[in-house]
Amino acid sequence: MLSVTPDTAIAVPASVIAAGFSPVADESRAINGTVGDITVADPRMTARNVNVYYGDKLAINNVSLDIGKNEVVAMIGPSGCGKSTFLRCLNRMNDTIDICRVEGEIRLDEQDIYDSSLDVVPLRAQVGMVFQKPNPFPKSIYDNVAYGPRIHGLTSSKSELDDIVEESLLKAGLWDEVKDRLDETGTGLSGGQQQRLCIARTIAVAPEVILMDEPCSALDPIATARVEELIDELREQYTIAIVTHSMQQAARVSQRTAYFHLGELVEVGKTDDIFTNPRHRLTEDYITGRFG
Amino acid sequence: MTNTLLIIILLGLMAIAYQLGVRRSQKVVGGPSGVRALHSLPSYYGFFTALWTGLPALLVLLLWVSLQSGVIRDLVVSDLPEAVRSLPDAQLGLVINDIQNLAQGNIVSGEVSPAMEQASAHYKSLQQTSYAASFVVVLSLAIMGLTFGWRRIAPKYRARNRVEAAIKWMLVGCSTIAIFTTLGIVLSVLFESIRFFQIIPISDFLFGLDWSPQMAIRADQVGSSGAFGVIPLFVGTLLIALIAMLVAVPIGLMSAIYLSEYAGSRFRAYAKPLLEILAGIPTVVYGFFAALTVAPFIRNNGELLGLDVSSESALAAGLVMGIMIIPFISSLSDDVINAVPQTMRDASLGIGATRSETVKNVILPAALPGIVGGILLAVSRAIGETMIVVMAAGLSANLTANPLQSVTTVTVQIVTLLVGDQEFDSPKTLAAFALGLLLFIVTLILNVVALHVVRKYREAYE
Amino acid sequence: MSKQEQIRTMDRVNATLKQRYGRERRFRRFGFFAVLLGLTFVGLMFLSIISKGYSAFQQTRILMDIEFTESIIDPAGEREYAVLSSANYAGLIKQSLRALYPEVKGRKEKRELYAIVSNGAPLVLREKVLADPALIGTRTQLWLPADDDIDMLIKGHIDRTVPESERRIKDNVVAWIEKLEADQKIEKFFNLTFLTGGDSREPELAGIGGAVMGSLYTLIITLLLSFPMGVAAAVYLEEFAPRNRWTDLVEVNINNLAAVPSIVFGLLGLAVFINFFGLPRSAPLVGGMVLTLMTLPTIIIASRAALKAVPPSIREAALGVGASKMQAVFHHVLPLSMPGMLTGTIIGMAQALGETAPLLMIGMVAFIVDIPGGAMDPATVLPVQIFLWADSPERAFMEKTSAAIMVLLGFLIVMNVLAVILRKRFERRW
Predict the structure, then answer these.
(1) Which fold has domain C209-426?
(2) Would you state the torsion angle of the CA atoms of residues C253, C384, C406, C201, taken in this order, to the nearest 10 degrees?
(3) CB contact under 8 A, C10 and A121
(4) Do residue A154 and residue C1 have CB atoms under 8 angstroms apart?
(5) Model confidence over B420-448: pLDDT tens digits?
(6) pTM of the model
């Protein structure tokens, strides 16, 4: 699927429609109104019947979804469909917004992350996050990557910390570009490098899951390609959930795709199936470009 | 009062000119139905005529009023007997004061000599002549302007453009007042300071360790040297400013952090305006609070601990000044903390940092330049603050770093030297201007640096 | 990442967690404590001032039997104004006091007795007689103001239980007052003199009326000068000024002037307005001019912000229908930004009302009894009056000072509330 060009990815369903294919063929398999199988064999995180409110406004309506081990799940949908809100629930970043309230159950390896006894600080060490806009701290490249290990007390010596920084930058594919200027400020890098620095910063604390909120939306095509490659490489070690605005990107990097619409999870399935054979009319309309 | 009358007459003339202008503009195009043939609306022709009537006349009047007293004074002086004219400047000033008071029918210090009577009569007649002349000149100028403006009205005349150009020049004039104010400050303190430095060498002033201006009254007196060393004043000023900063910076900064990062929106909605009340309280109230509540409190408690506390201790003044500066620090810090983008907080929290770790490791370092700029501004304010120290700090210039002792400051000395009876040319009075110059320069440097730092910081996040 | 490695990491994270949360709690408490401390200071200041000052709004008066004896007031019986206005009214009071305490003998003790009534009391009688000469020869009961020491005693600021040598009022005087209290001939009344009177050396006669009028004239001058000039400068800088070095210079100047110590403006006023232009010292006109220069930066900065808040689309719309730039600004932009400008002006005026130091420089610190009748009369202003009274040694002046502060803060609160209301009322979201 990774080699599929954008053109063909969209062209396929269009021809299917032309053949008179019914948009929702298999209503019986829908759970909570979601078409497709929300579960996976080996889940890392499981979300069940999640509702999110901003004040009185319902932003996420009854969403259930598994995120499997060592897979990349892409969340797509039009602006304001709730995909970012859902992503931010997975490491409780929504806690920082006063008026935001989350109902339902989200588990990380059987542990309910909204349990009142659960501590968000170690949770966020386990479930890291990469943001839409590259947001390196105005510190040196080294200090950016070392920030997480330092605050969490992961290392006991300088050399250990050096190792973690180098390893993280290596994994993020940035080491060769910055190894001679680790003391320079992180904000001086190019946009793509900054985003990879942010990824390095996230993996420096050895998370299990990495959440990515439109990580390429502020990058140019070449930098985007580089980050996408990186995501594919990281999949071997981490579980990744990525929100993206670009269907092509979802098609290129993910194994499963979830389509959100107006706060509901409309359809989920293997990426190949979703793009070649969408079963819900809304999904089909979206990926064929009728709206969004 | 004559000038007020003149201004009222001028305003009346301008109103008439407006009406005349409007009428004529309509008449030249053959009645109100033809106004479309005019270049501008009739009201612009009215304004045009009114401006020609009022502006030149008002400018001349302004000039007249500002020069009048100087010219009259010179004329009166030139008519005084030789013995009086050769008096030193300071005494001549007193004589002229007496003449003016006599002319206005006020009580005069000392005896009234026939020469004085004559001079005051002369003064009075000159004043009346001046008023009469200004009346004639200003009014005739106004009528000339009216005629000139009125005659220029023609259908193709671009009255609107002219009126707008005039208004624009008035706007420009208003905007330059800031420059003239700065210029006025610099010149007024500079001239007097130069005269001061002709009497007292500048090195004695800047590096002297003694300040006792009371000595220097007249050159022929014993102990006339008087000491004008500014160091003890500056040490006192800095000591009080330091105490103020030690109070204001931690409290102000931490309140800003708590209110922007921790407090719930309801608590913030009440606490923030309540804290800002501190910023609106006049400094004289702080001074009263310092002198009558805080100073005795510190003194009594110090005595209980066996400490020797002066009743005008630097600590009391500094403490209260610190309270005054809290809202200043907290609102400036609040600004810069809020300017740190939310994505920075998200990045830190998203990696599992606690809030305080985020504040200490990410927000404060990022906001540091802005906070430093704010603190510099606050220091400049503390140095220039007057009423608290006048009321709560002492007058004796002790060179000490002990906050329990009494110290004096630059502003206190300016006030003591200039309030009350003064001879304008004595070194004592001139010293106040030299202190003012010093104060202006120091605060100016602090302000320029601080504003520069703050602006650079804002640009970094915009 | 292997499961093993993951568990090791989480162990390390958890190991320091308790410590980190401890630090978090301490930091948070420190912040809360700072806010609390700030609020305590606010409360403390208000408490200390109100508790000291509220009693000044009351005045102690003594009920006296006054016999308007003709032989003392107008022996000739011709009721001439000159005679009536300079008559010995103090004699009437002394006569009445002697009648009240016939046991008082000796010159020293008599003098102490006469001192329980204010020096201003004869003036009250004089007013009465001048208004109605028919009073002469009659006998009336009148409430006359007591001396400030008696006032303090009645208000409880002088402790009657301490030894005689440690208080200002001797035992015999206390006994006289206690007799008056027992007869209910000494009472506290609302103190109108304090609000309407001019300054005085006698605390019981001193009022803030003169200072309030002085502040009013000064503020009117400040407003008349600073509002039009400030708005004009802001309009030019924001709407017309080209971006060049001159404009930069103007802007740097405005920002700096906003931070120049106020006393320096006083020096400017002294050197330029008084010594160079020869304007009168102590006049509200000069005070207003100095305060204008001080408040201009505030007004200009606020007005520019208000102009900036008007979206460019409004200007474009006006220009699009053929208005000149001047018309677009004066017909559309200026009215829309007026609430913001007025808010800034009120805040500037509040600053000017509380300002003291520069006015000391231009001589508005003189002791002035008369209430000023115009901008050229010698006057003082409310904050300077506070400064002057705060320096006075009498205990009664401390009460007056606090009360004057209450009045000043009252004015400031009203002005600030007005500014907030204005901002809320006209706040516009584009």
Answers:
(1) MetI-like fold (1.10.3720)
(2) 180
(3) no
(4) no
(5) 665 556 778 888 899 999 999 999 999 98
(6) 0.84
